[in-house]
Specification:
Elements: H1 2-29, E1 34-39, E2 54-60, H2 64-75, E3 83-86, E4 100-106, H3 115-125, E5 126-137, H4 143-159, H5 169-175, E6 179-187, E7 197-204
Parallel strand pairs: 1-2, 1-4, 2-3, 4-5
Antiparallel strand pairs: 5-7, 6-7
Amino acid sequence: MSWWMAAIYDRFMRGMEDACGAAWRAEILSDIAGDVLEIGGGTGANLAHYPSSVGRLVITEPDRHMAARLRRKLAASALAGRAEVVERPVEALDLPPASFDVAVSTLVLCSVADPAAVLRSLRTWLRPGGRLVFLEHVASDDPDRLAWQRRIEPIWKHVAGNCHLCRRTEASIEAAGFGIESIRRESARKAMPIVRPTIRGVARKPDL
């Protein structure tokens, strides 16, 4: 199934990316700098939006089919030579704690097996005061749409790479010990209705 997801992912996401996704990625990545860890890099949708202020970039992508497409896109990007792809989950990275200034999570916390463990790992890898920038689709605040998300989620997870529709990601970020600095809630245009509710913003690891 993962080879199929990798093959269709960019085409499936194109409408949303053209309508709002690419602009949102550019917005949250525009002022990051230093050593950056991106989790679940997929096919590389963020690569075109990283500024020149990024020094080192490590991208985790456990799915080998996604990782192959990501590496091809990376080789043709301005980041070639400054970035590496690691085919393992962030929880399994073999790195010293406090290795990064910024962590990036875009449309990935919906599909990881254990969001709390992933977020705890990000807090470990970030330096004191480090930032987590995020763009995620989440459970709807509208009761009717949330009811549909709950009905569809059991099937959706099996056909969409373990994607969950009803996660409360803002609460999970805070529960992992991050402080939310800024957050915006917006409907993703041209996306399927069940995945339109999104949040994006910045959270920070405490200085101490």
